[in-house]
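pinning this so it doesn't scroll away 📌
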Amino acid sequence: MYNLLQRANSIFAFAMTVTFGVLAAIAIATPFLPSSPSAQITVKDIQVISYEYMTQGESEFAFVKLNLDADLTSLFNWNTKQLFVSVLAEYETNSHDINQVILWDSIIQSKEEALIKVSELHNEYNFVDITTSFRQVNASYSLYWDVMPYVGVLTSGQTKSNHVIKFPPRSNEYR
């Protein structure tokens, strides 16, 4: 009737159909799982110094110290592979309506790492404005996260800071 190869092919096709059906159900159900992440960012100190920057001439760099207290454990479920987390400074200038600068980022791969409590965190990347000056600039600081699932769509979210902080006048030394 049927040889061994035809039977193996039928079993394999059925197994793949069931597997893809389960993966589709997981991808559809994951966005509806409840989560309530929370984060609080407190800026401790901002310093602005003048620096000779490449060929543009003199620019102002900002150095930020902040405290980060976040509980992102609710974002982890059976379909979460990892989280990409970043702290951004967001501000407006006369020449640009939206400016976003990443100050710090991290990849979180387990639920235990998702409870973040860091004090006196320094910015990891250069914080320089395109206009070469931070005069009359007020910034708010936010925590952004991207949930990378095993199966399904990448989702993201953010926790915005309530307070806006004005940049201080520049100094010539970095503490």
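📌 and the second one:
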Amino acid sequence: MTTLLPAAPGSPAARPAADVLDVSGTPSVPLTRLVRVELRKMRDTRSGKWLLITVAAVAVLVMAGLFIWGDQDDRTFMTLLGIAFVPLAFALPVLGILLICSEWGQRTALVTFTLTPHRGRVLTAKVVAALLFALGAIVVAAIPAAILAAVGGAHAPWDDVTVAVLARVLLAFVLGVVWGLAFGAALLNSALAIVAYFLVPTLLSLVGGIWTGAQDALVWFDLNQSSSVLFDSGPVTGAEWAHMATGFLVWVVLPGVLGTWRILRSEVK
């Protein structure tokens, strides 16, 4: 649009102003597009792509190993899915950490937050993308587990498969992802966050093994140990849910709140 500048004193007429670009009515970037961008970031890099391929291959191989060398009665769906969770439990939090720290580790935060100045929307897109990857990991693990259970010859391969058990398995996958996201957001350094994620449960286990009198107290803070009951076929007691809730508050909520504050308020250089 073109406007007229007021005439200067002594000037015979007003002069036209330069064209002004008005972007106030430009719609914001849809959240779905931001999620697609974050999903692409997780697989575009060579390290991310090979990490996904390696983890999927290892998950299938450990299930095949149980199928070949394990007992016939162990070839149940839940047993196969549980053993596939072991490599996935290492990979999914690492993927979450790499995703949340990518803007700072690769120094792209300035570009990202310039193109999308609402940092909260970018952070939300990263969380949604990580959760979608967790759902994809369950599918990757569940399909070969179901096939091997169907042909494994176990006496009752589907007895423990209920909606409640599958919901707990989904919760275990999601818990690992958000734990990695929280550590990554709090530290904003992928190497440091990965070390911290694996070091904290190891230290708690060592303390519990050396100081046996503290085991009853440490179970309230050892989220890795308390969440292991999610793969049990039996019901989870109220005390076990309380242990998980306390560990979730300490190791996910608190660093997640700190990390969110850092991402939203820290200066981008």
